[in-house]
Amino acid sequence: MSSAARSTASARSRTRSSSPLDTTLPHQKKDILMPVLGALSVTLEVPDVGPGITFYTDAGLEAAVDGQIARFRCAGQDRDSVILIGGAGKKRLHHIALRADGLDKIAADAPAAGGTVVDAPEGFTDGGLWVRDPHGMLIHLVERPADPELAEGPGFEINRPGRVIRKRRSAVLPRTAYPAAKPLRLGHILVFSPDVPASVKFVTEGLGMGLADRAQDIIAFTCARKDSDHHVVAFAKSPDIGFHHASFQVNDPDEVGRGGRALLAKAGKGDWGFGRHTIGSNFFHYIQDPWGSWFEYYSDMDHIDDYALWTPTNYAMEDSLASWGPPVPNDFVHNYELKYM
Ligand SMILES: [Fe+2]
User: Which residues form a coiled coil (predicted)?
Assistant: First the structure.
């Protein structure tokens, strides 16, 4: 650098440092667009869709099957939330789909954030925008209207100290009075990442999402920037990418508990729950799917209406999984998609 250039650069530096400090955190800047708006679906390759049809219909989803392609949706919705493609050697995440706005901006921003805009994979629509994240995870971004607002569910009433609101009637009906659990909508997807901060950088800077909270560099939760569940896409550290769980909202904590026990009885594999997360605050019950990943019923998730007014917390690892609940299964955060498994 010439002495003249150094002098000019120095002058610019002085100019910047003498300006009033901009104390707005980057994630709070108002001019950031909000491309990703919510979760749409997860698509998995599996050896055989048969066990998946049993599992997801037992979980309360509606199935449409065409040979070795099985699609599952919540009753009353006009779109799929889980798609299984049979014939693979082992279960593998094919892609996740997110509802988004401003696909042109994502296409422009994704490369600088470590991603790649790619063609639609064979057999899939070339509508929307397909990108790979820095670790090769495929994401399909789709412009489509928001789902209709859910009807207001029955209130979850609690007689609490100093405020008894339920009198002369029982909160809990006989067991046979309850229908099977009914997932209302896909709320979030958790995937594995070999570099959680890099994944967060990609979805925040490339896809316009917000970091809701994290626990060190081991797990991170990201949300849409407006009217979002606490998390829409989350990342857990693993040597490679993979699918961990999809989480479906049900009416209330009782339905989480009832649905979880009922699905466990049918699936006959592992579970974790009933419990309550610290990060996101939701009640949860996870049931292991036929391939070692998880299905979650949840209720009462924290809500971020305006990300500009939210401050992320970096939690200690002891708070990363639950506030309370049963012991965590040994393989709860095991990535069964690792190549050496
Ligand atoms: Fe979850």
Answer: none
Give the chain's domains with CATH numbers.
36-145+184-319 (3.10.180.10)
In tens, the pLDDT along 106-136 reads 999 999 999 999 999 999 999 999 999 999 9
Could you tell me the distance, in angstroms and rounded to a whole number, from the CA of residue 284 to the centre of ligand 1?
A: 7
How far is CA 65 from each of CA 54, 209, 291, rounded to the nearest angstrom? 12, 33, 19
Q: What is the mean pLDDT of the chain?
A: 91
Residue 339: band (very low, low, confident or very high) from pLDDT cuts 50, 70, 90: confident
Query: How far does residue 185's CA lie from ligand 1's centre (Å)?
Result: 13
pLDDT at 14: 34
- Tens of pLDDT along 80-108? 999 999 999 999 999 999 999 999 999 99
Report the C-alpha gap between 128 and 235 in whole angstroms. 23
- pLDDT tens for 253-295 read 999 999 999 999 999 989 999 999 999 999 999 999 999 999 9
Alpha carbon of 261 to ligand 1 centroid (Å): 17
CA of 268 to the centre of ligand 1 (A): 21
